[in-house]
User: Fold this.
Amino acid sequence: MGRSSGKIENYIAEKLKSHAEQNIASALEFIQQLGEAKTFQDVVQIQTEFMQTQLQSFGDQAKEFSEIYAKAGAAALNLPFHMPS
Assistant:
């Protein structure tokens, strides 16, 4: 592909890096909260909230990447050298 392919790859790489940083920060916060738990009930609540938050976050990230790939695919089909169907 051409320049646009490199731009898309760089954009995706930056998004992956950003999401990884967010996920690591969330995990570190989770560990800190677990360290502050006083009771088993606190541990269960912290774990449950963390899992709910992470599942939502992963879902949002997956949706974002599916949209990025769909747009990239649509852009690739508009390249002048694509094969007619």
About this structure: The CA atoms of residues 1 and 10 lie 14 Å apart. The radius of gyration is 20 Å. DSSP finds two helices and no strands in the chain. The chain has a mean pLDDT of 86.
